[in-house]
Specification:
Elements: E1 12-14, E2 17-21, H1 27-34, H2 51-62, E3 74-78, E4 83-94, E5 99-106, H3 115-129, E6 135-141, H4 145-153, E7 157-167, E8 172-183, H5 184-192
Parallel strand pairs: 5-6
Antiparallel strand pairs: 1-2, 2-3, 3-4, 4-5, 6-8, 7-8
Helix pairs in contact: 1-2
Keywords: Acyltransferase, Transferase
Domain N-acetyltransferase: 17-185
Organism: Mariniplasma anaerobium
């Protein structure tokens, strides 16, 4: 079986934005939104304090994913500004079920513009057609309404909720984690209708 090219995924253009494999040089842009407490409020990391944290996360969290059978992750690029404005990625895999989980984050200046919804849809397409996953899952804390909108607009089906505790540097969030999925069959079926 041919090894999947996880290290260099295909570039994807949509409107004035592009998905391309995350690079170490993106750390400055990652730090720009990663230091924002509002952007990182519902994430299990951040806010970042030093730019070296962003560089370290690319090298120590994103790059090693290839060894675990996952793509490095996509940088979302504002083509006109040649700037990374967020990431969308498969951050974990359940290999015995051929299932991957999506995570994402985007700079606050780009909230509410439909960019992340389109980026997630493009990643779903790659997950089923290029990486040949059977199922993709995604999760969000119930208080994260923005994330919920992206997930619902991207074609996922709600499965269940579980109690969850998110421990941040200066706070603890007690909430429900809402879990969604989309299967390859559902994806291909919705493309025909």
């Amino acid at each position: 079986m041919k090894k999947k090219p996880f290290k260099h995924m295909p570039k994807v253009l949509f409107g004035e934005y592009m998905l391309r494999t995350l690079k170490t040089k993106d750390y400055r842009d990652l730090f720009e939104y990663g230091k924002d407490p509002e952007v990182t409020k519902f994430l299990n990391w951040g806010p970042m304090v030093l730019s070296i944290e962003a560089k370290r996360s690319i090298k120590e969290i994103f790059y090693p994913r290839v060894k675990n059978g996952l793509p490095v992750g996509y940088a979302i690029i504002d083509i006109n500004k040649n700037k990374m404005i967020g990431t969308v990625d498969f951050h974990s895999v359940i290999s015995d079920q051929n299932t991957a989980e999506i995570g994402y984050v985007i700079h606050k200046d780009y909230w509410g513009k439909g960019i992340m919804t389109q980026a997630v849809k493009e990643l779903i397409k790659l997950g089923f057609t290029y990486l040949n996953y059977d199922k993709i899952i995604i999760k969000h804390l119930s208080k994260n309404i923005g994330s919920q909108r992206v997930i619902e607009k991207s074609g996922f089906k709600y499965i269940k909720k579980e109690p969850y505790t998110l421990k941040k540097i200066n706070s603890i969030i007690e909430d429900d984690m809402l879990i969604y999925e989309i299967t390859k069959e559902d994806y291909h079926g919705s493309k025909q209708s």
